[in-house]
Amino acid sequence: MDIERIRNFSIIAHIDHGKTTLSDRLLHKTGTISDREMENQLLDSMDLEKERGITIKAHPVTMYYNAKDGQRYELNLIDTPGHVDFAYEVSRSLSACEGALLVIDAAQGVEAQTVANVNLAMNHNLTIIPVVNKIDLPHADIPNVKRQLEDILAIPAEEVVLTSAKEGIGTDDVLEAITQRIPHPKRTDKESPQALVFDSYFDSYRGVVAHLRVFNGEFKSGMHVKMLHSNKTVEVKEVGSFNPKPYSRPVLTAGETGYFTANIKSPSDVKIGDTLTDPKKPTEPLPGFQEIKPMVFSGIYPINSADYEHLKSNLAKLQLNDAAFFYQAESSAALGFGFRCGFLGLLHLEIIQERLRREFNMDIIATYPSVIYKVVTTDGNESDIDNPAYLPEANHISTISEPMVDAYLMCPNEYIGDMMNLTAEKRGIIHETETLDSGRVILKGRIPLNEILIDFHDRIKSITRGYGSLDYEHSGYEAAKMVKLDMLVNSEPVDAFSLIVHRDKAEQRGRALAEKLKDVIPPQQFKVAIQAAIGGKVVARSTVNALRKDVTAKCYGGDITRKRKLLEKQKEGKKRMKSIGSVNIPQSAFIEVLKA
Question: In the prediction, which pLDDT does 84 show?
Fold first, then answer.
């Protein structure tokens, strides 16, 4: 296809504003998918995506459209996720495009993630086409959405395309806007072919399948290409595109997107953001997207220790099509051998765990999520700590700094007080409020990352009855009174339950953990003390009562001193047992506590 008739675009939106439905409608309208093959959420290939109604992976697809000007266009669409945890997926999709459809719900208007995605698209210098979706809803407020677009995002209201993806209204207008407004790709005019790898996945028959966007020259089977990052030269076995299933093509030319396969067996050989070029005349790397650093860490262990190697190979496959996922081997006295894994956020962590269970049938257990703390010791050394086990003794620590985020909270006016209370409860500060329209405000604040990990998003939704939304970006470190909370069972610390918490919240967290452990540890022959301790100081305690055998059952009458003698003898035995006995915590107890 002539480069002037190619359009590369992606769809960006806040979560649940209808971008996947719109992409389904575009596929249907261009004849890429027949009526017989049509189904909802067509580009969401994982069961998990369909169940939750969210997009987790970016999905490329090539469509052909006969426009009103009589020309036939090749449209390359990349569907992107909307959740804040998957912003890196959006960033790498945008680096392969020239334009973006910005989808906004006509009833809900501009949300926190809409603003973030527009900024991302503007940083990539993309042409933005605003699409107001769900105009068929009875409570759709189109004039208000147009006003928000102009006031908040500085996008002219006359550029808006009105659609209802569910009803199929306005799909032709969207396709015409794509062909007329989005610029065609431009060659980089280098002597050598150039392509950007923006995604990849593992196929058990073909090895690594890499998604690429060609910027210069052409790529076809039989040619040799060099991957600049890994410095390896491979022979291309097959090139093709997606419709949305992969299909082979003779050649991919400048401006087109598709995939290529070669004899690449190891997932680690392909780096997302890498440049492919000619090994004889290599060019400089294309500007990829930023390197994403994981922000949330958790240990993942196989429940059956014999599955360790199996888990290791499955994590490598997951890392292949998830550039932000990170893992390294670690061991725990309580849980055996496993891996320390890094994620972008809690939803990301949940999705990886669920994929391990579903796609690879792994029985796994995950430890309490933590973030990276910067610790300065008394001798001036600075280190990054993501695991409480590696935290130095308290008397050797000078300062502990925790990661902070700049949070943007959107909510209706009547919930401002509740949102401020929630932020204060999470040790955050609101430093700016901005009125968006007559009904909504945006609160800008600074909150510690570890406070928003667990239930912050859910609490926002419940406080604002579903109308609140959150977006955040990382903004450096700040010193805080963080301490290591150890859980002692029968005076022995259990490393799997250790965590780093703020001093003010340590007692509350310790008490909750001690109560939970009391319920799940089976009774022993002696009383078991469960204690939460900071250094040498115990801040919370609960006790598992002993199993008691009735030693007086054989006494049927006689003097009370006989019964007392037997009870004293039992008491001595229990005391001796407590001093030498050990408590075996069953695997089920770890799972119960870590779930909670």
Answer: 53
Residues 6+ apart with CB under 8 A from 474: 295, 403, 404, 405, 406, 449
Cα distance between residue 528 and residue 489, in whole Å: 7
Query: In this model, does residue 158 exceed pLDDT 70?
Result: yes
Q: Max CA-CA distance within the chain?
A: 110
Q: Indicate whether 17 and 155 sit together in one domain.
A: yes
Cα–Cα distance between 450 and 433 in angstroms, integer?
23
| pLDDT, averaged across the chain | 77
Looking at the structure, tell me whether residues 42 and 134 fall in a common domain: yes
- Give 49-54 contacts, CB < 8 A, sequence gap 24+: 53/16, 54/15, 54/16, 54/81, 54/82, 54/83
In this predicted structure, what is the pLDDT of residue 305? Answer: 77
Calculate ∠ Cα 369-371-373, nearest 5°: 140
Beta strands in 254-396 (DSSP E): 257-262, 275-277, 296-302, 326-332, 336-343, 364-366, 370-371, 373-377, 382-385
> Count of domains in the chain?
5
Instruction: Give the Cα separation of 34 and 15 in Å (integer).
Output: 27
Q: Checking DSSP bridges between strand 72-79 and strand 6-13, what pairing results, if any?
A: parallel
- Identity of the amino acid at 50: K
Q: What is the pLDDT of residue 553?
A: 65
Arithmetic mean of pLDDT, 8-31: 78
Contact in structure between 378 and 397 (CB atoms under 8 Å): yes
- Domain end marker among 148, 181, 214: 181
CA angle, corner 538, sides to 378 and 368, nearest 5?
75
Within a 13 Å sphere around the CA of 179, how many CA atoms are in the beta-carbon half? 21
- Identify whether residues 490 and 582 lie together within a single domain: yes
- What pLDDT does residue 248 have? 87
Q: Is the pLDDT of residue 184 over 50?
A: yes
In the predicted model, is pLDDT for residue 191 greater than 60?
A: yes
Backbone phi, psi, residue 217, to 5°: 70, -155
* Domain that includes residue 510, residue range: 484-595
The residue to which tokens 């992969």 are assigned = 246
Identify the three-state secondary structure at position 382.
strand
Q: Do 22 and 137 sit in the same domain of this protein?
A: yes
The pLDDT of residue 590 is 61
177 or 524: which leads in pLDDT:
177
- Structural domain includes residue 542: yes
Alpha-carbon gap, residue 70 to 72, rounded angstroms:
7
Query: Is residue 171 within 8 Å of 25, Cβ to Cβ?
Result: yes
Residue 229 and residue 262 in one domain: yes
**Do 211 and 307 have their domain in common?**
no
**What does the DSSP 8-state code read for residue 4?**
G
Specify the 3-state DSSP secondary structure of 512.
helix
This prediction has a pTM of 0.66
pLDDT in tens, 83-139: 555 555 566 667 778 888 888 888 887 776 777 778 778 877 888 888 888 888 888
Report cis status (omega within 30 of 0) of the bond before 294: no
Tokens for 268, please give them: 């680690």
> 388 in a domain, yes or no?
no
For 249-286, what is each residue's pLDDT tens digit?
888 888 888 888 887 777 667 777 778 888 888 777 77
